[in-house]
Amino acid sequence: MLPHFQQSGQAYFLTWSLIDALPPKAMEVYSRQLKQIKFNIDIAKKKNSNEAVLAALQMEYVTFRRKYMKAFDNLLDLQTKFSVDLSKKDNQQIVLESLCFWEGKRLENYAICVMKNHVHWVFRLYEKNELNTAVYLQDILQSVKRYSSNKINKLEGLKGALWQKESFDTTIRDDKHLFRAVEYTINNPVEAGLVNEWSKWEGTYVAPGFF
Fold first, then answer.
1. Which residues pair with 12 in a beta bridge?
2. Which of 78, 154, 149 shows the shortest CA–CA distance to 116?
3. Do both 29 and 121 map to the same domain?
C-alpha cells in the first residue's frame, strides 16, 4: 500500500490482514497500477501542470484505490486457509481489546469489525495524548499489532509474525465519508455471507449513539 502523510487529530479507515491471508503477489497487478498513477501525479506536480490535469489524475487515483480495496476485500473473503482464525471468540476479544485500549486517551473509536483473516477499523486520533504529545497513526498501529500478535500467538501456540506488515489506510474526508466507512466496516460479515444482519457478528463494535 502506498504511504501518505499522517497527522494527529485525523480520522482514518484502516484495514489489515494476517500475514498469510492472501497468496503471495495476489495484488501485484493492482499495486503496480496504483504506484504508476501516484508516480504520474508526482511528475505532474513537479512540472507544475495545470489544476485540471492534477484534478483528473487525483480522481483517477481515488477511483482506482477504491477498486483496489474492493478487490483486496473480495480476495480476503474468498480465502479459507490461514494460520489463525480471528473469528474465534478468544481471538476476537484480544483484537477488540487492543483496539479499544487507547479509547479516550489517544483516540475515539467509531467502528471495528474482526473478520476471520483481517480487521476493519474506523477511528479518530486525538491531537494530543495523555502526556500532551502528538498522536500518530504509525505509533498506535504498531502498539495494537504488537499487543494482539503476542496475545494471539501465545493463545494459539505460535511464534513469529502474525500480521501483514502493510496496512491499507484511508483518510476520512468528512462526515459523509465517515458514515460510509462505518457502514462498510460493520456490513463486511454480511457481504461475505457469514451473517444476514451486521449486529449478529460478534466481532463487530459500533460506538454508542453513532446511528
1. 123, 171
2. 78
3. no
Any domain includes 2: no
Cell numbers for 199, please give them. 449486529
Domain annotation covers residue 208: yes
- Partnered with residue 14 across adjacent β-strands are 121, 169
pTM of the model as a whole: 0.80
Cell digits of residue 140 = 498506535
User: Does residue 15 sit in the same domain as residue 27?
Assistant: no
Q: Same structural domain for residues 152 and 55? A: no
Please give the Cα distance from 28 to 24 (Å, whole number). Answer: 9
Instruction: Dump pLDDT digits (tens) for 163-202.
Output: 988 888 888 988 999 999 999 999 999 998 999 999 999 9
Amino acid at 145: K
Q: Which amino acid is at 38?
A: K
- Give whichever of 23-27, 32-36, 82-86 has the largest mean pLDDT: 82-86
pLDDT digits 0-9 by tens, 37-46: 888 888 888 8
CB 71 within 8 A of CB 93: no
Residue-number span of the structural domain to which 67 is assigned: 23-78
